[in-house]
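[job 4471] stage=fold_predict status=RUNNING
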Amino acid sequence: MEKLQDSIYELIVETSTNLPHDVRRAIAMAKERENAGTRAALSLSTIAENIAMADENVSPICQDTGMPTFEIKVPVGVNQIEMKKAIHAAIERATIDGKLRPNSVDSLTGENSGNNLGEGTPVIHFEQWEKDEIDVRLILKGGGCENKNIQYSLPTELEGLGRAGRDLDGIRKCILHAVYQAQGQGCSAGFIGVGIGGDRMSSYALAKQQLFRSVDDVNENETLRRLEEYIMDAANELGIGTMGFGGESTLLGCKIGAMNRLPASFFVSVAYNCWAFRRLGVILDPETGEIKKWLYKDDEKIDFSKMKSEAPIEQKEVRQVVLEAPLTEEQVRELKVGDVVIINGTIYTGRDAIHHHLMENDCPVDLNGQIIYHCGPVMLKDDEGNWHVQAAGPTTSIREEPYQGEIMKKFGIRAVIGKGGMGPKTLKALQEHGGVYLNAIGGAAQYYANCIKKVKGVDFLEFGIPEAMWHLEVEGFAAIVTMDSDGNSLHKDVAQSSLEKLSKFKERVF
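[job 4471] inference complete, writing structure tokens
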């Protein structure tokens, strides 16, 4: 199959840069039903613009191109060993070309392989069937939404919902709780796949398999169909909304599967996926490896470049503030939750490895009054040795909660950009030190890459491209203040209000 590697490469590029048509329709519907002039509407407008930019640039929709997971059905006699070799070669090629971010990290040493290959990466599942064609499906599921996956063992006690028993109603409660606990950290509005039964491993596998179903697919099991419809209605009453800013659209799709289990075990597993639901597939000729047909593509493709942009937030009390580092404590303490901030000048990226390192070490640059961006960009180096940004949206900030407050105080950092908000430890530090948390739009990697005018330098490249400290010159970089130095937190408020709404679903339904 001489064309196989090229076909797999094309599948990877399309999956990373071009959302499937069913997902586009779901996002467009969410955009239409959102109240005009709200933070959620503005976020959905940015998401739509980002999708259009990824189409035009043929660049990653989100900078976290995730763990490549292939589900493959092959006729009897197809050489799966050779197929794996072709997939590995295509993965490495796509990484070199900047269509995938190098994401494969040794769990013991922390070393990044640099080519997305390593033990367990990528994930490839084969299944034989009797058709004379090869069915290859790929999902790129990022770490932010992967971290919001959750598994329940029934019976259990759930915050806001009470006891979830070993029955259909207990399953219902678990699924609603899974949506609630994700908040904005998984880049809502999102999609969920649910696996009921099995053992711990097969239950999670079933949940992820549900994400390969089309958004408009109707469940053949009548009980599960009714449960899917119920969850869609109830979850969107929680008011978590896009990016966890509040709003009408919290969940864009719900697919549920069930399998038999042991009498002693009753698992409910939920695979959460962000709005950037990158999932495509192809049918290949088993003789040549050429693409015969694309899956998840149809005649109804939403072109977001032709959709009307959302007007600015229609709230009289909202201010727009232009900032350029170094920032003073006085400047920062004047910022309040809800302010829209436009950043010009230099910002520095810093993720897990950087924060861990800086707890016990000095920094090669002066961070006093500076802005840290929770971001692991996709970068390419040209022939002259200059770095260029391919994608650069925010990563989930809560992972830095054990470090952030201490790092800000130690180095004098005044502002942090990320997504999904942070916890009480950071909020307390913002009050004591005089700091602010700015929420950028998760997944909008092309939108923010367009704001980066120059890569001025890089430190800690030994940690790998996603974890290095990049010095970025930005212009017109927009974010919303969601945690301020007065102790206010939009994330805390939305979590509390959604918990109150969740509690309304405590009584038995099924």
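[job 4471] summary: The first strand starts at residue 67 and ends at 75.
[job 4471] exit 0
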